[in-house]
Amino acid sequence: MRFLATILLFCAILVSFVHADTQPSTVVDILESDPRLSMFGEGLRLISELRTELRDETKSFTVFAPTTEAIRRAIAESPHILVEAMKGPCESSLRLLPSSNHFSTSTNLISPSPTPGAMSILARILSTHILPAEILSTQIPEMSARVEQTLSTPIPEGRPRFGTLVGSEHLVISRDGTNIYVQPVGMTYPAARVVVPDIVVKNGVVDIISGVLMPTNLVKEIPEYCYRR
């Protein structure tokens, strides 16, 4: 009997270790393993510096990750906006996004040979979706007035603003009952809704959202290197 109890205890400990090893430990693990986020995760793999930072378990992050469906929809519905945003400040053409037709058969986000400028812009877009702190849905303040997902004007002044990994970009995050909305400050396109909140890991939380958060200053800033060409 004692031998059987010892065997059962050993098996329980072994299973617990195996289970722990297979659990996602960082936000990167979620972003690169969840099939709903395949396009966002693919982009992250290309930006090694950002990926390394998000694997740091001594830091905390909140990632608002758009689904692949949301990214495809954004490209299909507003291709001119995304194409303009993806144009490099110096390059006459920037091979970052493939043609719209490409998205109907593939999840590839990046062209085979993206330019350094394209990679820089991709890093900025990804970083706009990330806060350098863990914010759970229960910490989001309730809105005093109802705001629908179809919001087409900037969220009113006074809403809390959260700084992203892009120093000049901030997000307004509001909760209306069980609905949470996210929108870059200064943008007028519809706010994204959190469809899956609080996927908690060791170094933060991932919230899956219904739309893409485009940086407000992306086309307003010209890097210094452009003037040295």
TrEMBL record:
Read off the Pfam families from this record. Answer: Fasciclin (PF02469)
- According to the record, the signal peptide region is 1-20
Q: Which UniProt keywords apply?
A: Signal
UniProt entry tagged with the keyword Signal: yes
- Residues in FAS1 domain copies: 24-213
UniProt name for this protein: FAS1 domain-containing protein
